[in-house]
Write a structure and sequence with these properties.
357 residues, mainly alpha, 14 helices, 72% helix, ion transport, sodium transport, Sodium/hydrogen exchanger
């Protein structure tokens, strides 16, 4: 969005304060407009997938077509195509996945993995060719400032957003997690593509491309390699944390329903702590946490009562979230056993969804 904005500013020549103000407004319109377009196509895809039970073979096609249409529609109206794709995928995930068959889900998953790898490979091949071909315009001050400002902006962005979401998370993102996210990212493939598309008559085009290529090489060869050991430590930490993840998750769900009933805005009532064997649940949640819990309960009720019935076909719309998650994990575990050659180790009678209910 900012790329197109500054591209238009460069063609105008003189930019007034009013132009800058209108540019800020257009930034939010373009970004939020892309989200809206993507959400609309996501709901259309979910509604369409309700009626594909007899023609399973076309289910992957619907997913690809609606996603691509979201991107094209946004670009046609000069909105953010990337934001449209993200919003479309976020809306399609819980509803379309419940409607399509497991074979269609597998087809979509591996087809997109393949094309993402192919696209990334082509971009970096193109990057290598552009690096060797040139022409380049090296400026130590501009290139160094670009690398430093990219790192600073990334740290500010990750730290600021993490500070906000940690207010609502039960399992907080630690300083180590934030460091890996901030330091281990920022490749710049999209920046390189946009810079390469600049008009060749643009006098700063060569120095822009040189700075972008330098940032990409710095983040690939310096940042990535130096953060591998810290990343491995984080992965080991996440595996050990998984065993205790059920405790805060179950307590959160319990607080959602208990505190929705017993909490009042005028006075914080002292509610007796629910204890596990020999353990306490700890302090009462804050007002901010309670408001998010109440919102979560109301949102889940609205989703189950209205949205899921409209977008999900059959009995899956009435399936409790825990049962649906168990059903998904059961299928995933069975596939992993078969792929690893452990199909003979499958138990004779796996617990069914009916018995779980």
């Amino acid at each position: 969005v900012l790329y197109h904005l500054f591209e238009e500013f460069s063609e105008v020549g003189s930019v007034t304060v009013l132009d800058g103000f209108l540019g800020v407004i257009s930034f939010f319109i373009v970004a939020l407009g892309g989200v809206l377009v993507g959400a609309i196509y996501g709901f259309l895809a979910a509604f369409t997938s309700r009626f594909t039970s007899n023609t399973r073979v076309i289910e992957p096609l619907f997913v690809f077509v609606y996603s691509y249409m979201a991107y094209l529609s946004s670009e046609m109206f000069h909105l953010s195509g990337i934001m449209a794709l993200i919003a479309c995928g976020a809306v399609m995930r819980p509803y379309v996945e419940a409607n399509i068959s497991h074979k269609s889900h597998t087809t979509i998953k591996y087809f997109l993995k393949m094309w993402s790898s192919v696209s990334e490979t082509l971009i970096f091949i193109f990057l290598g060719v552009a690096t060797m071909e040139g022409p380049h315009s090296w400026n130590w001050i501009f290139v160094t400032a670009t690398v430093i400002l990219c790192l600073v902006a990334r740290v500010i962005g990750v730290g600021g957003l993490t500070y906000v979401i940690n207010k609502f998370r039960i399992v907080k993102l630690t300083t180590k997690d934030q460091f890996i996210i901030a330091y281990g990212g920022l490749r710049g493939a999209i920046a390189f593509s946009l810079g390469f598309l600049l008009n060749k008559s643009f006098k700063m085009r060569e120095i822009f491309l040189t700075a972008i290529i330098t940032v990409i090489f710095f983040t690939v060869f310096v940042q990535t390699h130096s953060s591998v050991s810290a990343l491995l430590q984080m992965i080991l930490h996440s595996h050990s944390m998984g065993q205790s993840l059920y405790k805060p998750l179950s307590y959160t769900i319990l607080w959602c329903y208990l505190m929705t009933c017993y909490y009042s805005n005028s006075t914080r009532q002292t509610v007796g702590l629910v204890r596990a064997p020999g353990r306490s649940m700890g302090r009462l949640p804050s007002k901010q946490q309670m408001s998010s819990y109440i919102s979560l309960v109301l949102l889940n009720r609205f989703n189950k009562k209205y949205v899921k019935k409209f977008l999900i076909a059959g009995e899956r719309s009435k399936e409790p979230q825990l049962i649906a998650f168990y059903h998904k994990m059961e299928m995933k575990q069975a596939i992993q056993l078969v792929e690893s050659g452990g199909g003979s180790k499958l138990p004779s009678a796996m617990p069914s969804t009916v018995s779980m209910q």
